[in-house]
Amino acid sequence: MSKWIPRKLGLSVLSLLAASSSVYANTDFEQCKTELSQQAVAQGVSGETASKVFANIQYQPRVITLDRSQPEFVQTFPGYYGKRVTAWRIGKGREMYAKHRELLRKLSHKYGVPAHYLVAFWGLETNFGSYKGKMNVLNSLATLACDERRSTYFTKELITAVKLLERESLDQTQMVGSWAGAMGHTQFMPSAYMNYAIDGDGDGQINLWESEEDALASAANFLSQLGWQPGFRWGREVNLPENFDYRDTGYKNRQAITNWDQMGITKANGESLGSSDEKGYVVVPAGHNGPAFIAYHNFRIIMRWNNSEFYAISVGKLADQIAGEAGLIKPLPELPAYERNDIIKLQTALNELGYDVGKPDGIIGPATRSGIREYQLSKNLVADGFPGLDVMEAIGVFSEAPKQEKQS
């Protein structure tokens, strides 16, 4: 396959690509489409379908821009959570739960995934179907398949999407979704659609755009196949003892609930965690001033849908509240909307002070958290590994707090 877009392009060059997309569409992209069409036929798509589909696929320069772009701001947990677990989503979630009560009951019985979780995923992915994306999926996938950066992955997803179109008699123009190719009520990538989507309304077709029943049934099947553990929660909010060692947080520090209970961790309402061999780990997404959680096995299953602890906590708490439980007990702390450059400055300063966090990239990963924690220990600060205002000011990233991030 022709690799016709260079690996590294600045946004200015991408803008030029957008201005001259017709030139590329008539030359290299057309050659790439021909090769993709041939691959599709070799993998079982009929020649008639391949010819019709690929004739209508168009290059989308904006997809490349979005793929290359980096966010200006670093998302913090209060900002993320506050925009997702809202009173509107809780109320709408309860409404949709009531609408599909009988179907959800059957799905929960068959797949072991409680109904309120299915509704929570639906709410976070597409606002219960009110926003499924506007970009033509096949155009997006073909554009990414013809780009060198992740060509192999997106070629597979594109050909799978064409197989789905043929299998389910889908309308190419109505196959819309995210710029990266996620589709329908549940924002499945084509491979997830092919492997896990099922017919929930009994009409003989699996249509994740038009059928809410198909989407909910497919979500239940997907989570079950990923390894959802029936009868167990995602996790819960907890209180940590004053002397808690924050080096004990994270997935690598999984322990039986009995052990955490003996260490003085309680439920958020002060009740004992109790005795259990079930393992969990402590998550502190906003530092020691914010809420803390114990995450169980199903938390990791949620992260296989979207590999983000912020996302998994939001799904869990939205599900809890749709089912009538309380929201967060400990309020979210006010945190600034850090710019990416702020984190790069922090990482640079940590390296200069002898705390090796790797190449400054503006991403708060394990190495950066470890470096922050070691710095905090050296300054007798609470060593939670979180870039709070005390750390940012002490290390000289800025002398006064930036603008606070809005939480809703």
UniProtKB/TrEMBL annotation:
InterPro entries: Lysozyme-like_dom_sf, MltB-like, MltB_2, Peptidoglycan-bd-like, PGBD-like_sf, PGBDSf, SLT_2. Coiled coil: none annotated. GO terms for molecular function: peptidoglycan lytic transglycosylase activity. Keywords: Signal. Residues 1-25 form the signal peptide. SUPFAM superfamilies: Lysozyme-like (SSF53955), PGBD-like (SSF47090). One of its GO terms (biological process) is peptidoglycan catabolic process. Gene3D superfamilies: 1.10.530.10, Bacterial muramidase (1.10.8.350), PGBD-like superfamily/PGBD (1.10.101.10). Residues 340-395 form the Peptidoglycan binding-like domain. It comes from the Bacteria. Residues 29-320 form the Transglycosylase SLT domain. PANTHER family: LYTIC MUREIN TRANSGLYCOSYLASE (PTHR30163:SF8), MEMBRANE-BOUND LYTIC MUREIN TRANSGLYCOSYLASE B (PTHR30163). This is Lytic transglycosylase. It comes from Alteromonas confluentis.
